[in-house]
Amino acid sequence: MAKKEKSEYIIQAVSHALDLLEQFHDDVDELGVTELSKRLKLHKNNVFRLLATLESRNYIEQNKVTENYRLGLKTLELGQTFIKQMGLLRQSRPVLESLVAACNETTYVAILKDLNIVYLDVVETDLTVRVVPRVGSRLPAYCTAAGKVQIAYMTDEELEAYLQPRDLKPFTEYTIVDRDALKKNLREIAEQGYAIDNEELDLGVRCVGAPIRDYTRRIVGAVSISGPSMRFNDERLEKELIPLVKKAGEEISSKLGYHK
């Protein structure tokens, strides 16, 4: 069976909705149904249905005075998310490379997404025994260094909302599944400014992570160093890896406009 071209999978209604959103550009801030119908070469009823759908999801809003339509707040949120993530990637890459040059272990930058972490970028060690890269993977925040160092700074209310519906699954014998013990661990992390994953997600793997903040002082991600526990003994963590990852977190934060 011949492989289909991607163009064969296009959903026409979605394509029309995106065409509609793209009409708002440069100096065009508001458009009416009639004008949109002309531009899109679609019947007014179809345009109205597209507008109603987009409005229900806050991608479009109606000016009650002119009755014309304009972009909604959701489009701004998407744009800001893209800018933040691309800014974080661009600013963190050279720091990750310097970090690997300093310790020759695999380094990551990760963000919190729907209360899981997603690794955005990785720079690998050249050592034979290494951790398998997980760029794009979603992993639970409560048992990863990059995740714990982000949820550690949540307010009590935010943390309760995070833990309430969550079944703290034990991935290894070292996973912290007791809520009170996890809260205690998170309080310690917030005080010391770094987190350690002590084989909590994968046996034989230890990680250390530090927070990344932007110019608003908000935590927008984490930088982490990961490797086999045989190379990540307590002495090396204390003397080398923790200072390196904290410095890397501060350096990326500084590039994003954060000042203490």
Can you offer a commentary on this structure?
The chain is α+β, with helices and mostly antiparallel strands and 260 residues long. The protein has two domains: 11-71, Winged helix-like DNA-binding domain superfamily/Winged helix DNA-binding domain (Arc Repressor Mutant, subunit A); 81-255, GAF domain (Beta-Lactamase). The protein has helices spanning 12-21, 33-40, 44-56, 73-103, 145-151, 156-163, 179-192, 234-255; strands at 60-62, 69-71, 106-113, 116-123, 138-140, 195-198, 205-213, 219-228. The chain has a six-stranded antiparallel β-sheet with strand order 5-4-3-8-7-6, sandwiched between helices. A two-stranded antiparallel sheet has the order 1-2. Strand 7 (205-213) and strand 8 (219-228) form a beta hairpin. Helix 1 crosses helix 3 (44-56), helix 2 (33-40) packs across helix 3 and helix 4 crosses helix 8 (234-255).
Features:
single chain; 260 residues; alpha+beta; Arc Repressor Mutant, subunit A; Beta-Lactamase; six-stranded antiparallel beta sheet; two-stranded antiparallel ribbon; 8 helices
Quick structural summary:
The protein has about 260 residues and is an alpha+beta fold. The protein is about 45% helix and about 20% strand.
Count of discrete structural domains: 2
**Which residue ranges are poorly predicted, with pLDDT under 50 across at least 5 consecutive positions?**
none
How does the major sheet shape up? 6 strands, antiparallel
Question: Any idea what the CATH superfamily of the largest domain is called?
Answer: GAF domain
Percent of residues in helices:
40-55%
Structural class: alpha+beta
Oligomer: single chain
User: Averaging pLDDT over every residue, what do you get?
Assistant: 89
User: Tell me, what's the shape?
Assistant: elongated
Integer-rounded radius of gyration: 23 Å
Report the top-level CATH class of the largest domain. Alpha Beta
- CATH fold-level topology of the largest domain: Beta-Lactamase
The succession of helices and strands, N to C, reads: HHHEEHEEEHHHEEEH
> Strand portion, in percent?
15-25%
